[in-house]
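Appendix B. One record, verbatim.
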Amino acid sequence: MLLPALIGLGPWLLPRLAGLLGALLRILAAAALAAAAGFLLFRGALWITPLARELPPRLAGAWEGLRQALPAPAGSPGIPRLPAPIACVKGDQGLRASPGGAIRSRVAHGTPVRILEEGQGWSRVRTPGGAVGHLPAKALERAPRTDRPLTCVRATERLRLREGPGTGYRILERLKPATPLEVLNREGEWVRVRTREGRMGFVAARWVFWPPLDPAADP
């Protein structure tokens, strides 16, 4: 009795089972495509993120090089060249011949350097003594653009910014090592400076790089 009944259901049941199997296969295929698309998007994000960080400085460097290479049109005053940005070196660093290459010399903590090129986590710099080489970008504390001479905190601990030129004056702030500072003037063993935030005060001259770098004197 059971076997003839199952045989009788065959023409009705088989198409429905085939339809269910087809729907299941389509769902699995769609899930596989979605997973593949998600993986490709993830890999693309990993590739694009560092490129997006490096592109602006590369474009800026290329534009600057193009501006210097192209002659100015006849009768025009020419295109003024911006001075190289200045940064303070954080910790004693090895100045390398190329990114990750051999160390040519050492650059002391708190030394201001001019940034010539940037990219791929490295910066090509020039030291106050004229040496040119590469330093890790993370080892540089970039200074704000200014027309005034710039110096850097050489102290390895926080440096006291005081209200006046002496230890008896009130402490206004404690500056981090390698902080860039605008130099306003020097009074004996004290230097009057201005911070990135615009706060003015005095620091002990022995704990900042001297003489300061003049941005306008970029060779």
